[in-house]
């Protein structure tokens, strides 16, 4: 049997209380006893018919059961939708994270670079000089091998230098004091050399480093988490 809520219980009480109230009214304010008796009889019959139709009828209980099942089905459906949405959301989120990591080019990936391979010679924070172009800069990230879009690879490395794709590459903030046109560069390991005692001027320097100790720049905590061995 379905559970009777407060609204239904109140309705029953009102119906049951209507009979004695109407009876007393008819008893004291009717015109004569015959009319009062007829009014009372009609009231009793009407109240009983209403009560039986609402609470003693199989059809009424069948309707209530159908409504209860419909609500239960809707709640279950809503729960399943929420469950499916959560599964979809977290699946897409994980997929998006993997895709973002795959598409992080030019040493900009935020995955933890640990352990650090021995063949990666240089570290974040070291100041470098480009062997061919002569500009200086500071390393802000590295990849164990070149990580760039396919079009960049084809443009940057002619057939004679395809082996450079497998070499470590470094992301550099270029020293503004050099007057060089670019502000950043992505360079293979063989094209740079380390220099000590040279400070770099760049508008983004403080975002990556908290200071300079005379030999290398000190990484900000967020950058140190990405390159814990540098």
What does this structure look like?
The structure is a single chain. With 230 residues, this protein is α+β, with helices and mostly antiparallel strands. It contains six helices and seven strands. The chain has helices at 6-29, 33-55, 58-102, 150-156, 205-208, 221-226; strands at 127-130, 136-143, 169-174, 184-188, 192-194, 209-212, 217-219. Helix 1 (6-29) packs antiparallel against helix 2. The longest helix is centred in the middle third of the chain and has 45 residues, at 58-102. Mean pLDDT is 75; it is low at 88-103.
Element layout with pairings:
Elements lengths: L5 H24 L3 H23 L2 H45 L24 E4 L5 E8 L6 H7 L12 E6 L9 E5 L3 E3 L10 H4 E4 L4 E3 L1 H6 L4
Antiparallel strand pairs: 1-2, 1-5, 2-3, 3-4, 6-7
Helix pairs in contact: 1-2
What is the compact description of this entry?
With about 230 residues, the protein is an alpha+beta fold.
Based on the structure, what is the oligomeric state of the protein chains? single chain
List SSEs in N-to-C order. HHHEEHEEEHEEH
Ends apart, CA distance between termini? 71 Å
Query: Radius of gyration in whole Å, from Cα?
Result: 41 Å
Major β-sheet annotation: 5 strands, antiparallel
**Structure annotation, total helices:** 6
The mean pLDDT is 75
Count of beta strands: 7
């Amino acid at each position: 049997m379905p559970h009777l809520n407060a609204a239904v219980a109140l309705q029953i009480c009102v119906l049951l209380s209507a009979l004695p109230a109407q009876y007393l009214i008819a008893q004291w304010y009717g015109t004569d006893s015959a009319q009062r008796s007829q009014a009372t009889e009609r009231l009793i019959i009407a109240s009983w018919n209403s009560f039986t139709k609402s609470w003693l009828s199989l059809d009424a209980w069948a309707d209530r059961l159908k409504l209860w099942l419909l609500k239960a089905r809707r709640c279950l459906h809503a729960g399943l939708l929420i469950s499916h949405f959560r599964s979809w959301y977290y699946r897409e989120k994980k997929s998006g994270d993997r895709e973002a990591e795959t598409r992080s080019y030019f040493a900009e990936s935020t995955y933890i670079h640990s352990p650090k391979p021995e063949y990666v010679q240089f570290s974040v924070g070291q100041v470098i000089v480009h062997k061919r172009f002569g500009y200086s800069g500071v390393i802000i990230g590295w990849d164990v091998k070149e990580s760039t879009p396919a079009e960049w690879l084809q443009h940057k490395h002619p057939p004679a230098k395809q082996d450079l794709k497998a070499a470590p590459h470094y992301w550099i903030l270029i020293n503004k004091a050099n007057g060089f046109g670019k502000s950043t560069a992505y360079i293979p390991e063989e094209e740079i050399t380390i220099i000590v005692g040279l400070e770099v001027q760049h508008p983004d320097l403080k975002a990556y480093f908290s200071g300079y100790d005379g030999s290398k720049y000190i990484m900000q905590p967020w950058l140190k988490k990405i390159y814990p061995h540098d």
